[in-house]
Amino acid sequence: MSVLKVTGVTDLAGLGGFTLSSGSITCNGTLKVNNININGSISGSSKYNIPSFSGQSGQFLSTNGTDLIWSTDISSGGGGGGAGLRSMQVFTSNGTWSRPSNVGSIQVVVVGAGGGGSGNGESAGAGGMSRRILDVSNTSSVSVTVGNPGGGTGYSGCGGSGNSSSFGSYCSASGGYGANCRTQHAGGIGGNGSGGNMNAYGGGGNGYGNWSTYGNHNAGTSYMGGSQPSGNSQTNYAHRHQSHAAWGAGGNSSRYSNRGARGREGVVVVYEYYG
Question: What is the pTM of this model?
């Protein structure tokens, strides 16, 4: 058998071809093949090479925007983003929302505070609601305002109105009206949302009742839920349990001329998504 020993093979122009050295073949130019069968490993510095499989059981191939890498966390995308819900922040008082790392969009729910209830079955309205989706890829922080509730009052008095909640200038929700404020012996009307992809009124409160209906009255229901419990023969029952209500709910009424419950504080909830 004859052996041909050369250090290189070139085309007629001397531009493209192969260089043979120390058991390696180097292609000078572009190597074009229809099919390739590899019995060994692929190595080199190209970014198109798949990283070594060794020790990567249970992981998946991802990218950080520069290189191919192995990752175990699908939510973080191996340091390059990911998809789905990352986290949530809940504000029950004024504050500042700051964008966490890898968050590209958020969904904000803003609820205004509830109004205050009165006596003889007259209860208050709930705060309104605004819900909005925002691209925050270029936003670092947003000021958050959470409304304080309206205070309760005795029979025929005007309950305090709840204050508005807001997420910067993007969306806001006004507070519910107190009992007896818009019209005598009537329940308070609910607040409303503005600026959101969806805006809604809070529920309205009940109007005047008598001894036979005490315990059957409810204040305005907010986006987050209902108001305090009411009682037929218990003195200041709703007022004594005024913290037992959903965020933004209106203050419930009491029997006779007893003091009604205050409303509940507003709330701002921020759902944070990878992007």
Answer: 0.71
